[in-house]
Automatic annotation (TrEMBL):
Protein name: EVE domain-containing protein
Domain EVE: 2-149
InterPro entries: 5hmC_binding (IPR052181), EVE_domain (IPR002740), PUA-like_sf (IPR015947), THYN1-like_EVE (IPR047197)
Species in which this protein is naturally found: Colwellia asteriadis
Cleavable signal peptide: none
Length: 154
DNA sequence: GCCAACGTTGGC
DNA sequence: GCCAACGTTGGC
């Protein structure tokens, strides 16, 4: 059982948007980075827990928790010429990009801010606080998960 | 809006 | 297969 952190720009898709979906469930499309894709394709498994992180916004931080409810399958937006995620080099026979479905489990009453995360003892190995924090899907160790969860307002 | 840190692309 | 140019991410 692994733990994850998924980043999203709340202007595009926030935890409240997830909460408003039928069954509070949505596919996590638009991943166009190979390292992140490999995590999604090979390692993100049914039932695993995900921190929902808000990036590039006023309130940076972890907004809540979701759970993986469907393992990787082709991201349909790569075949749609109208989509900004369209990839002309991908084909349905040999899809390049995948996505998973997640369902909201818990929205924190307060966002666990990046500032706070950085201040926590034991959180210095996580991709978020390292240089080059650009990966939109990243693993979180079990120890880190518990530290972060224990320090959130939930 | 700036800029550092990367990832990707494409010419050679 | 190298590497410069370019695009994107994301905190500040």
């Amino acid at each position: 059982m692994k733990y994850w952190l998924f980043k999203s720009e709340p202007d595009a898709f926030s935890i409240d948007d997830l909460a408003a979906k039928p069954n509070q469930q949505e596919h996590w499309d638009g991943i166009r980075n190979y390292q992140a894709r490999n995590f999604l394709r090979d390692e993100v498994k049914l039932g695993e827990q995900v921190f929902f992180y808000h990036s590039s916004c006023k309130q940076l931080g972890i907004a809540g928790i979701a759970e993986v409810v469907k393992e990787s399958y082709p991201d349909h937006s790569q075949f749609d010429p109208e989509s900004k995620y369209f990839d002309p080099k991908s084909s349905p026979d040999n899809p390049r990009w995948v996505m998973v479905d997640i369902q909201l489990k818990e929205k924190f009453s307060e966002i666990l801010s990046l500032q706070k995360i950085k201040s926590l003892a034991g959180i210095n190995d996580i991709g978020l606080v390292k240089k080059g924090h650009r990966l939109s899907i990243m693993p979180v160790s079990e120890v880190e998960w518990h530290i972060l969860y224990d320090n959130s307002q939930h």
